[in-house]
Amino acid sequence: MRKFRKVLDGLTTSSPGATLGSPSGGSGAGTPTAAPTPKEIDVQETLLSEDFQLCKTVRHGFPYQPTALAFDPVQKILAIGSRSGGVRILGRPGVDSYCQHEGGAAVLQLQFLINEGALVTACADDTLHLWNLRQRRPAILHSLKFNRERITFCHLPFQSKWLYVGTERGNTHIVNIESFVLSGYVIMWNKAIELSTKTHPGPVVHLSDSPKDEGKLLIGFESGTIVHWDLRGKKADFRIYYDEAIHSVSWHHEGKQFMCSHSDGSLTLWNLRNTTKPFQVTFPHGKVQKDGRKESCKPILKVEYKTCRNSEPFVIFSGGLSYDKAGRRPTLTIMHGKAITVLEMDYPITEFMALCETPYNNEVQEPYAVVVLLEKDLIVVDLTQSSFPVFENPYPMDIHESPVTSTAYFADCPPDIIPVLYSIGAKHKKTGYSQKEWPITGGTWTLGSHAYPEIIITGHADGTIKFWDASAITLQMLYKLKTSKVFEKSKPAEGRAAELVEEDPFAVQMVSWCPQSRMFCVVGISAYIILYRFSKYEANTQIVSLEVRLQCESEDVISPSENENDPCFSEPGSAHSPQHPHRQPSSPGCGTPEGVKPSIPCLKVKDKMVRVPPGYQAELVIQLQWIDGEPPQQITSLDINSAYGLLAFGNCNGLAVVDYLQKTVLLCLSTLDLYGATDPYQRLTRSPRRHRQSTSGLTELPDNQQSFDMERSKSPTSGYASRRAMLQQLHGVTMYSHDEHHTTTPYCWSERATESRENSFSRSRSSSVSSIDRDTKEAITTLQFGESYGRKSDALTSPCLWVGTSLGIVLLIPMSIPTDQEERMEEPVTFGPSGAVLMLKGSVLRFGFLDCMGALIQSPYEVWRDTNAAEDPDRPRKRKLIHFSPSSSQETYGDGHLAVVCSERQAKVFLMPSQSCLYVHNITESSFVLRADVVSVCNSVCLACFCANGHIMTLSLPSLRPLLDVSYLPLTDMRIARTFCFTNGGQALYLGSPTEIQRITFSQEMCDNLQEMLGELFTPIETPEVQNRGFLKGFFGGNAHTFDREELFGEAAAGKASRSLAQHIPGQAGMEGMKVAAGGVVGELARARIALDERGQRLGELEDRTALMMTSAESFSKHAHELMLKCKDKKWYQF
């Protein structure tokens, strides 16, 4: 008990009041006993709360659950709507904007105001929105909410300000786009159909104006009824009643024919001269059976009928396949003349659209491409080539190719790493794409002055790793690595083994990357670690495999006899020798019970020489052994240091350190054995249970459902019954904190979580955590190598390993590493006894190190060298190590450095080597911290935290003053918790949906520069002129431009619509909305001013012509008067 008190006294040696004043929001650490002098920690903190502001920057990836598609043929920009109310607007690479409807209602339809810089969205909550695209961040100008009718279809004619809106009741309303109010002109369904018709025609599924005459509107009803409505005469020209339901209609550009797609898989072609029956009926995929009947086909959901100037028209449609062939993939069919091409898709088709040269519907269309929006992909087909190749997509639409399971974000990387990765990754790109440029080229984007190298790494469920260039808020794939190639192809397991094997055994759990040395580590869900080295050359290599036993199945009893035999911490000053697994299969600290089944690794590493391509090449695989037929616990923490040549990892059973240069296991201890005699907790003597604990760390609930346990939970952590259950799901281990009570009801994840395979990858083993409150295993939650002071008495720094556990304990393990290169490869690395035991509330999450001037101390690293390059005998390559010693630049401040430790509940700053606690700040009481990191912002450093209640906080260093606290993103599912990460420059990212990465910033400087970094969606382009149709065509074909919609739909002629029918809602509130509205008003005023100038110019010209006419009239009057006087007295016969 005396030793325990001594440890506690060492943790409470100072209070904030003894140094630079009490940090706001913190609590004292205890009674000051040996506080350092202010001179030692006289840090000039420069960060203020004004330096921080939270905002979203950009969203990458494929829009999750897409619903709608639109294209502006003049601006050449594409819009995609989603089920969650999001809208992505894409132009040339770099032009990528994301908008979100506040209500989150699904987007039903999108309509561009072509070449006007505006977009209309129709949502499932029966609201129309008008978006202003003439600014870098689009915003809503107007909204119109329908109260009594549901919107089913919209149509906006080119260069018109009147939007036709069809509803579920079969009515057609007309909306003024400029004022966003309803016109009094309504086409009621009972007026559109014949009075003798006894049935309702159904919802409106199609609206379009006739290419021949804009005064005629074609209305398609779901039941198969088609009405050609005369807008001027307010009557139907003709009506068509067809037996099959209609899904879509498409006009021929001359306006004499139109084509319909139906629910029976047929296409009907109708001629306006004879509407009693279709001109042509075809079943493109329906074969004639032996009995003479057509086989039944699936519905054709959409058809487009596009004409060409020099060839036969294109008929493009989706669906229509016969029912007899089950399991066929979704198809897009292209009929060009007599040729029929069927393109099979990987995913169901949501929408498609032909891209044409002209925006006018009464001109030859000349389609050149087809955009196909699939459920999980976006492809563009080149129609100008007979083979119909696909364009290479420049957007990062394949992030979700396999579900993302982990992320890492690195800002300010070495500038040479991106070109190297790109050059190697480019060799493995797919071929067979169209040779033409990507057709969606709208907007403008330039590389801003604030760009610096950034890399995002994503790990996936199938074991792939993707490196992305994230510089200048863009995203481009650099390099792809398949970790599964390290292992032999496994045979299907049987019996009990089949139950325990992962459904995705190669799923990536975490990654660790050193950009300077290019060393890369991958942790897999099957409890293995793969170490990769980077090389520009291909090589023949044999992968070294190490098996580590890190599982305690015996009594966790700390007895004097055990302590005496412990080779690591038996006496102060002793050193621990490396353990070779092939010599000692049973690692220290983990007893082996008698009658144990042979240990079997989950996956078998390739044991033959393999040819590896340039790039990342596997050098070492570390696998945790199966014990007694049970799989090992997942790895919860990892750190690698290239300067030391060491790799450390831990789980809920203990810690292991591997020397990857010598390929040996140096340390393998249970968590209890790490403490030796300094364990601050009284632990019960018990035998741990034999059964496998839950490891469903990477399983997540579907986005659209929650388990019944989460629905009943009302905890402040937004849906999770307890912090332990949350961590059980996040880390896959049984853990608890010493500040929690362990009397709650056992918590189990619902088995319904495994029903959705789309957004998560589930596990076949049971997720029982029934013993979570009884089993006191302590997990290793974070590790970090660095130069520090292992003991209070040390005068010089030495290599150390910082260890953080789930009980809030921080251990500091000093190491002795040979400095000579030859000795380093032969002599073992030794470990001293732990010289520090620090304590915090909650599980330890992160370490950071500052010098006594407040500057961030980087971990030492080895400069990258290519081990496969040809050797120069005259100049042998040596390891070049870069060390950052805490005392190198602070002679005037004395020796020592600051250690920042952040846990789930609080942050502390310690002065080393005295281990005095200088500052402490309780971050949260009602929730817990999920992610924390020490990051650089505005030429300084701060501690950034993301809490489970959705708060993002920043604290100054070293005083831990709160600088930012914003409620940003409530934790609604495990995906966010698993993928959220901070990086330097005040940036962070997370997986906003299963297919999209959302990047955010909490730096005021970046928020200020964001407008410059974003692309422009709208560029001033002249609208193409109408083609000259010729005298005869214009005379006999009618003039489509004589129709005045204003005269017909305006308030003067049509009156006002009922107020109860729809409600007008002005643009967004708040400062951003005001700025947007101001921008919109300025734009509208500018346009109004231009219109007034033009009107004034025309009035001036009219005035001149009027004056000229008056002069002419006066002259005529004068001459007429003179002539009258001359002829007044003459007789008729004198003329």
Write the layout of secondary structure elements.
Elements (H helix, E strand, L loop, with lengths): L1 H10 L40 E10 L4 E7 L4 E6 L3 E5 L5 E5 L6 E7 L4 E6 L3 E6 L6 E8 L4 E5 L6 E6 L4 E5 L4 E7 L1 H4 L11 E6 L6 E6 L3 E6 L4 E7 L4 E6 L5 E6 L4 E5 L8 E3 L17 E7 L7 E6 L11 E6 L2 E6 L4 E8 L10 E8 L3 E5 L21 E8 L5 H9 L28 E7 L3 E6 L6 E7 L12 H6 L7 E7 L4 E6 L3 E8 L3 E3 L2 E5 L11 H6 L44 E3 L2 E10 L12 E5 L4 E5 L3 E6 L4 E7 H5 L32 H5 L10 H9 L48 E9 L9 E8 L3 E8 L4 H6 L3 E2 L4 E4 L4 E8 L9 E2 L18 E2 L14 E7 L2 E7 L3 E7 L6 E9 L2 E8 L3 E6 L5 E6 L6 H6 L1 E3 L3 E7 L2 E8 H10 L17 H6 L8 H5 L1 H4 L7 E5 L3 H58 L8
Task: Write structural notes for this entry.
The chain has 1135 residues and is mainly beta. Helix content is 13%, strand content 34%. It has a five-stranded antiparallel sheet. A five-stranded mixed sheet has the order 33-34-35-39-37. The longest helix is centred in the last third of the chain and has 58 residues, at 1070-1127. Residues 1-37, 558-594, 684-720 are annotated as: Disordered. WD repeats lie at residues 239-280. It is a peripheral membrane protein. One of its GO terms (cellular component) is SNARE complex. This is Syntaxin-binding protein 5-like.
Concise description?
This protein has 1135 residues and is mainly beta. Helices cover 13% and strands 34% of the residues.
Q: What characteristic shape results from the CA principal axes?
A: elongated
Structural class: mainly beta
Percent of residues in helices comes to: 10-25%
Total number of beta strands = 62
Tally of helical runs: 15
- As laid out across the biggest beta sheet, the strand order is 6-7-8-9-62
Beta-strand residue percentage: 25-35%
Q: Rounded to an integer, what's the Rg over CA atoms?
A: 36 Å
End-to-end span in angstroms? 145 Å
Mean of residue pLDDT?
80
The profile of the biggest β sheet is: 5 strands, antiparallel
Low-confidence parts: 1-39, 553-597, 685-724, 730-775, 887-894, 1069-1083
